[in-house]
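Suppose a colleague, Dr. K., hands you the sequence of a protein chain of 333 amino acids and asks what its three-dimensional shape might be. Before reaching for any lab equipment, you can write down a predicted structure in token form. Begin with the sequence itself:
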Amino acid sequence: MMLAPALARAQDNPMIPGGNSAPPGPQPKVEVENPLYDFGTATEATMVNHTFKLKNAGKGRLVISNVKTSCGCTAAKPEKSTLAPGEETEINVGFDTHFQKGHQVRMITAFTNDPSTPEAIMTMQGTVKQQVSATPADVAFGNVKQGTEVTREVIVSDLTGRKDPFVVSDLNNSNPALKVEKLARPDGKPGALLKVTVTKAMPVGTFDDTVKMTTSRIPLQVNVFGDVTGDLTVAPAQVSFGIVPHGAEAVRMVKLTNGGGKPVKVLGITSTAIPVSASAEPIDGSKDYKITVQLHRGTPDGQVRGELQIKTDDPEQQVLNVPFYGIVGQFSM
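The predicted structure, expressed as tokens, is then:
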């Protein structure tokens, strides 16, 4: 059976819904004049501005439907969103260098109806020079034993080379269990020595705070984080069932260790996912517990994720959370 010529052409070149196939006739073509802008070196906390120019070098109407930027950039809408053949438009872009340092790259994407270039990419790059630094920039306490105090030091420095006085003032942070003290630098240079202390009042668990300060140059902030551990610890900290065959069950063991001087009872264990349950059994001759975690037989194929909540009579650690995860059945991307 012979097909009509028009039908045969349609089957040879099917239109894909949602694709970039353009209607027949003259096509638009987007061109970016100088798509890469290297701003060289900029001082931290300044705004780097640039204007990119776009042109319709095709024979059809060009439509710019949207403009998106990577983190730290703002972009204005193009002066014209529809360009006739030969017409041009501009996109103004600003890069805020606050809290940036070193080599930086930012991408700007203009989405168009050009079938060959539906995404026109523009790039801003350069080096941001810091005015003020904190060493270290982030304070990582790691694991801190509950009821103890641990202190870390941070040196605040002026990098501008200016001769006017460099002053650090108005320190603040949100966590009352984290104490921040400002002292003179021991080397006598301009700036400050910060003593950041996790106090005994910090509760068990993860903490994350930001120390913000005002300086005579620009504002500065230092991230502070860590974990306070109590007498009760679990190992492993999370349970992996791995890949479990269809219809099978899986069992994993977790040890709850009591490093304190008093016995602690496990009052119960709950699970946030129905296919997983757990039970606790004291270990003879110790204050510790063996936790048996079970992924039940017949769990439907797919990912299993959740958390065990181990309840105890320890007033400082009434609940210990243990995440779990696994895949039931054949793994597929």
